[in-house]
Amino acid sequence: MSHSNLRNLTLTVNGKEYNVTVEPRMLLSDVLRDELGLTGTHVGCEHGICGACTVIMDGRAVRSCLAFGVQADKAEITTVEGLAEPGGDLHPLQEAFWEKHGLQCGFCTSGMLMSACHFLKENPNPTREQIREGISGNLCRCTGYQNIVDAVEMAAELMNKNKESVEGPSDKKIIHSRGEVEV
Ligand code: FES
Ligand code: FES
Known about the structure:
Layout: E1 7-13, E2 16-22, H1 28-35, E3 54-57, E4 60-63, E5 76-78, H2 92-99, H3 109-122, H4 128-134, H5 146-167, E6 174-175, E7 181-182
Parallel strand pairs: 1-5
Antiparallel strand pairs: 1-2, 3-4, 3-5, 6-7
Helix pairs in contact: 2-5
The protein binds FE2/S2 (inorganic) cluster (FES) (2 copies).
C-alpha cells in the first residue's frame, strides 16, 4: 500500500486538540475509536441505520459511520466521553438515564445520549411525542423506549432547573424551538 495518500487532520474532541494521520477512506467512527481511543462511540450497523455512532460535530448530531475522518478536519466534536463534567459530575442526561433505567445492555446508549443532547439543545421543553420523534433515529433493541423517553423528559426538567439556578427564574417566558413565545 502506498502511504502517499495519507492525510493529516487536526480535530478538537471533547475540548482537546488532536493531530492524526489517516487514510482518506477511514470513517470518522474509526478515527475516534481506533486512532483516539475514544471507544464510547459505538459502531452497530455501520451504514447509518442504528444511530449508535452518533456524535456532535460543529453543533450537529452526526452519524460518525457515515462521515469520513477527513471531513472532520478542523471540526469540534463532542463524544459521549465529553458529556460529564471534567470533575466527574454526570450530565443531567446521564443522571436521568441512570435514574429512569433508560438502558439495559447499553449498546445504544452513547448514541442515544448524544442524539438526546442535541435534541434538548434545539428543544428544551419537549412534549413526550417530540421526544419520541427526537430519538427516532436511534434504535434500541432492549428497552422498548419507554424508559428512554422518561429519561429524556427528566433530563429536560433537570437542565431547565439548572439553567434557572444560574440565570434566575424563567417564569417570564418560554421560547420554543420554532420561536413561539409563551408568557
Ligand atoms: S453504526 Fe452508525 S448508524 Fe449504525
Ligand atoms: S439498551 Fe440495549 S440496545 Fe438499547
